[in-house]
């Protein structure tokens, strides 16, 4: 019996020693792996707020752009340099060292100094200042004008879309906004024509709206345009005319304007000519 107990204790001791040896080996392996595995680098910040100040002015006096950050610039006075920052959403316009001017980014080349300060967003305004597209990418003609973080919603004229590249309303083919091209917006395709007709940029009526028509640029790219109030597009002449003169559009404004209002549009009162003759006021200049 004593012999069996002794053998059991010896076996347990051997197992314990083996387990401890395996644990020590595993810990050693982990330490080696940790030392040889490269640490994950933290992503660089996209925005710059605390750039190191340059140590000298390019010229004793003037305003000079930062080399990397487009909305940062330097004010030099008698060789003393002060770093400055444009309001959020504006960038420094470096057209002249004599002028301190922050402007909207459209038309200012920031390709070589593309960094910007951290944005200060508010409802509908990704930055405090600027023109910004509607949050819904399917809304092509609405955008926001933001000043001091407060927005004003603006709608483009019929047939135009907001261009994020220029900050203005433009033709769909020029704005090149994804999902807002001519094919997506208009239920119209330019008919195939020969080169001589295509060169005239032919016009075609909007079959769903008498006031509007399509201009096919070079016979291929449709642009939707319109006539002024009270008029309609005449397919025969290719021009706008009073709707009541065009048989297929004579009743187009029936539910929008009264006959009296249409008469006033078609026959506006003549402009009154000035009835005053030459001034009879005596000159106050003394005669010699």
UniProtKB/TrEMBL annotation:
PANTHER family in the cross-refs: BCDNA.GH02976, CHITIN BINDING PERITROPHIN-A
Pfam families: CBM_14 (PF01607)
Residues in the signal sequence: 1-17
One annotated GO molecular function: chitin binding
UniProt-recorded name of the protein: Chitin-binding type-2 domain-containing protein
Residue ranges of domain Chitin-binding type-2 in the record: 54-112, 122-182, 187-251
Alphabetically ordered keywords of this record: Chitin-binding, Disulfide bond, Glycoprotein, Repeat, Signal
UniProt biased composition (Basic residues): 279-288
Composition bias type Acidic residues, residue spans: 43-53
GO cellular component: extracellular region
SUPFAM superfamilies noted in UniProt: Invertebrate chitin-binding proteins (SSF57625)
UniProt KW Disulfide bond keyword: yes
Renumbered residue ranges of the record's region Disordered: 22-53, 260-288
Alphabetized Gene3D superfamilies for the sequence: Chitin binding domain
InterPro entries noted in UniProt: Chitin-bd_dom (IPR002557), Chitin-bd_dom_sf (IPR036508), Chitin_bind-dev_reg (IPR051940)
